[in-house]
């Protein structure tokens, strides 16, 4: 792989890789090395945005990696503003992202770009290995929407967490951003999900390469995926904000739509189950009784409260008892 000098022209570059970081110098260097180790014959411009780190990131990178286009921000602005700053410096036909705590396997770029060749209005999505470095466990994620639960990929994106777990696994043509715009900077959480929704609305379809060529590390050094009651509320509010932004776009594109009230209900239901899963029981109960009820009915909320409780109690109740309760009370609940 050839890394370009800072003065390289657009025509000399094939791929721009945008890498944002904040106080992760040790993992950052491993991520950078995984870019430099790519088995890709084209020219790559590495754009590193230091989001106002206090661990000497900018000084270390400028000294050890002079070929990297380093952007040092004076304020901590969050990943989406930082990525947009990187996009303003991007050149070449393709754009790829890598989070500073993730790693690429050597064949990542060549595989993702090959999948895009000859495919109009598309972007490529790799499978990932999710590595919990604290527990030292690994899980394979194919990163596809569950179309048994949802009517379409965009339905999934609007009401649940993104089926594309990490931007580190996505490669796009630069023209996508020129047509549909950059990441929305309104929230620090969920803007990548909103961006993928816009891609689908504008007719860009994901190509799933299904090869686990990205390692997404879960660790204890501060991540957006860390969950507490505040982040669940922020994700819920972000989904509502983006639903209200995107729903008129879906109408304008004359795409098949689910009723808006159902989508609101599913967003609040998702938050309720996240609260329950993470043992915020007061928030869980009020989400069902005060929020979901606005868009469905009290009966629907109560049935789903019972379903959540049964999921918790299934380890304690015999199977015949669980089956009887489900048949008696839960046969008419929606899948949310």
TrEMBL record:
UniProt domain Glycosyltransferase 2-like: residue ranges: 16-181
Gene3D superfamilies assigned: Spore Coat Polysaccharide Biosynthesis Protein SpsA, Chain A
Keyword Transferase: yes
GO function terms (MF aspect): transferase activity
SUPFAM superfamilies reported for this sequence: Nucleotide-diphospho-sugar transferases
Protein keywords: Transferase
PANTHER family given in the database record: GLYCOSYLTRANSFERASE, GLYCOSYLTRANSFERASE 2-LIKE DOMAIN-CONTAINING PROTEIN
Designated name of the protein: Glycosyl transferase 2 family protein
Naturally occurring in which organism (per UniProt): Lyngbya aestuarii BL J
């Amino acid at each position: 792989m050839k890394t370009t000098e800072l003065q390289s022209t657009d025509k000399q570059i094939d791929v721009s890789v945008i890498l944002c970081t904040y106080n992760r110098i040790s993992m950052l260097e491993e991520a950078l090395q995984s870019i430099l180790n790519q088995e890709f014959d084209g020219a790559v411009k590495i754009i590193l945005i230091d989001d106002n780190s206090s661990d000497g990131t900018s000084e270390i990178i400028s000294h050890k990696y002079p070929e990297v286009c380093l952007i040092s921000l004076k304020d901590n602005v969050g990943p989406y503003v930082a990525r947009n700053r990187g996009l303003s410096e991007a050149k070449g036909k393709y754009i790829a992202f890598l989070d500073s705590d993730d790693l690429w396997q050597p064949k990542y770029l060549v595989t993702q770009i090959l999948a895009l060749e000859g495919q109009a209005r598309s972007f490529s999505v790799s499978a990932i290995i999710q590595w919990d470095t604290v527990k030292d466990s690994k899980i394979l994620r194919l990163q596809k929407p569950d179309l048994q639960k949802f009517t379409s990929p965009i339905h999934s994106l609007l009401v649940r967490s993104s089926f594309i777990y990490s931007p580190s696994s996505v490669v796009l043509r630069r023209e996508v951003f020129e047509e549909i715009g950059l990441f929305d900077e309104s929230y620090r959480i969920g803007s990548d999900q909103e961006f993928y929704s816009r891609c689908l609305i504008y007719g860009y379809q994901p190509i799933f390469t299904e090869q686990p060529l990205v390692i997404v590390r879960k660790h204890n050094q501060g991540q957006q995926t860390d969950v507490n009651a505040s982040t669940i509320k922020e994700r819920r509010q972000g989904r509502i904000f983006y639903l209200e932004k995107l729903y008129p776009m879906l109408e304008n594109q004359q795409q098949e739509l689910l009723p808006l009230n159902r989508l609101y209900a599913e967003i609040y239901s998702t938050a309720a189950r996240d609260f329950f899963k993470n043992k915020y029981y007061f928030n869980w109960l009020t989400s069902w009784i005060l929020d979901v009820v606005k868009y469905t009915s009290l009966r629907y909320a109560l049935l789903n409260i019972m379903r959540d409780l049964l999921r918790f109690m299934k380890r304690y109740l015999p199977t015949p008892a669980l089956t009887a309760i489900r048949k008696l009370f839960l046969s008419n609940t929606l899948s949310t």
